[in-house]
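Job type: complex structure
Entries:
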Amino acid sequence: MSTERLIESLERRAQPVTLGQAPRLVAAAALAGLVGAVTLLSFTLGLGPALHPLPLFGLKIGFSLSSVGLAALQLTRLAYPEGATRAPLGLLLGPFVLLAAAGAFGLLTRPPADWPLILLHASWLECLLAIPLIALAPFLGATLVLRRYAPTHLRRTGAVAGLFAGAASAAAYALHCQATSAAFVALWYGLSVLLCGLLGALAGPRLLRW
Amino acid sequence: MSEEDELKALFLAGAAGDGAAHGRFLRRAAPRLRAYLRRQLPRLGVDPAEAEDFLQETLLAIHSKRHAYDSAYPVLAWATAIARYKLIDGIRKRQRSPAAARAPLEAALSLPGPDDHASVAAAADLHRLLDQLPLQTQAAIRDVKLEGLSVAESAQRRGMSESLVKVNIHRGLKRIAELLGLGAGT
């Protein structure tokens, strides 16, 4: 078919579209992802006495929700062609740095002999498995939005979608988790969410092609 | 009004549902995108003659992803970014299946006639032969015989009926055979 014929057929199919909807859709994916993750958690591991101790709950929720927010902001840009140039990845490291600082500070207040006990508390495997598994729900939402749009840097976009989903999942998991040390939270929440980002980077080029 | 402003106005009118403006945008963007693709293809080791296929893919994507334009940015840069993506995606697809990309080519070359004649046609010759055929025929042969699409996929892509695609392939292969001096028609 000639290019002119193609243009003629596209001309006839020019239904109106709405521009600038990406931020709204990403926000909807974030909310739906959080609700989905909490629902999934409550039916599997169940909700625990999460608010105790309160400062630690604040650390978990603060880290995960700020990561969700920053990743969502980046997704609204990555959804557009060449949007990667307007989405500084470094910003996403902020919550991780603060989390690591809180963890290190927590560790330094305890004698080094206790460190292995704190960091390898029995629930580390649950954390490392539960966060990526529950992240599937918010990841699905982010993927649906991104596939509707036109990301051009699929690996990077997948990585950010993975971080977004992992962070939303971590926020939900905080409602179950009974870890009582900042160092444990820093290590295992940090690693679990990073793992989600890595899995997202691996899946991105296949899932997000258009 | 600069070219960019005019194009943006046409694009936004098109996105609002004005088909004529949409068509004018595509017609004015097409030569620029074609030039971009022609420049980039040799760098990627692809025959610039394939620019038209990539251009059509790009125009289709521009059409179906109109909602993914952010009006804060230049529309030509947006359209070029889509062309660039389609280029990279197309090349990656080929690299992923080099065998699949070669096999249909060989199938297309096994024309009726003495074997020694079939060996004459290398890929470059084939493209030169194809260029002598009517556009519809070229498109059908490229889709089905070179890219390995099914007749149905090609029909959908080109907006032709399946039987028309088949007829075009048949006529095209016959014509190629004639051009190679293999057919009975010459």
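Summary: The interface with chain A takes residues 12, 14-20, 22-23, 26-27, 30, 52, 55-56, 59-61, 63, 65-71, 73, 77-78, 81-82, 84-85, 89, 135-136, 139, 157-160 of chain B (CB under 8 Å). The mean pLDDT of chain B is 80.
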